[in-house]
Amino acid sequence: MNDRLRPVMLEQAVQDARKPRRPLLARRYALEIRQQLAWYWQASIIGLALLVGLGLSAAILVAAGVPAGELLNEFVVLTVFDLQSLKAVLFQASPMILVGLAGCMAFRARFWNLGLEGQMIWGAIGATAISLFQIGPEALRLPLMFGAAVVCGLAWAVAPVLLKLRLSVNEIISTLMLNYLALNFLLHLLYGSWKDPRSSFPYSPQFQPFERLPDVLDGISAAVPLAVVVALLALWFLGLSRAGLYLRFVDANPRVAGAVGVPVRRMIVATVLLSGAMAGIAGFLVTAGQEGRLTQSFYQGYGFSGILIAFLARNNPIAALVVALLMAMLFVAGRSLQVFYQIPFSMVQLIQAILVICVASSDFFIRHRIRRVQGGES
Length: 378
Description:
The chain is mainly alpha-helical. The protein contains 16 helices and 4 strands. About 70% of the residues lie in helices and about 5% in strands. The two termini are about 35 Å apart.
């Protein structure tokens, strides 16, 4: 070897040795964004994530004192195959279906409507106002309460959507703040002029029998078929109508949708207003169906459940119906666990959080893949 080249080669070898070596895994594997994944693979990944979440939830319940052999009995047998429990599940699922679909509709328009609870509150306030002031004849009182709930829930969604489109105000902040405004106005009414004069407790006077949703078909509340009808209309709007086709473009890329002639702003406004109306109907179902009066806590949990249902269903309205039923089963089983095993209801909320985390984690595997690269590639 040439003596002149030896120092140069030695110096080059020293420099190469000083360079940081890349780990073996980083040299052999690469993380890529998936271009497309078949729906059945997506469903399989989400299903596996749910199984993991259910497994973790079962372990927590067993550690809390629930016998392992009773979990299937409590969550499936006693809630599905027992007639009274099944009625309770359907009754509980009615408002959940509506808030879940309300979330799906708004999220499809890329509007993060976190004000479902505020819209529920105003829907219930509108329905209660019709009852308290005895507006309309007795035969029309219930339809008028329903209409007032629709209008009030819709009206409470006007401000945040206009703030977003006109002033670019973040809708997450505006809808959350409006929730607190609606809650404080509700408390103002229930601790003030709308307080029940008979008991002096902070809830409104009891609705008249003709102002309550009646039972139909073997004791099933009319809230169930009413929720089904509204859900079918929402399914038609999102899946079969021209507006639903426009929403797919808006959801995919609003700028491209506007460039090809889709009325993006009008679609966002219309969809968000319908979302608020559906949340208002959910408030009507709870007050006129379950509570029989306006109370200060009737809305609690429904806003989070609606967002959770929309998230787990990935804004698919058909999947939202299934998820709402499963959520209702979880609530009914949770009440049973409270009674027989002294499990706090916060445990049910913990299970919800675990399921959310697992499904959110599955989204990483749906959108990404790990590819093995050749030895010489970086």
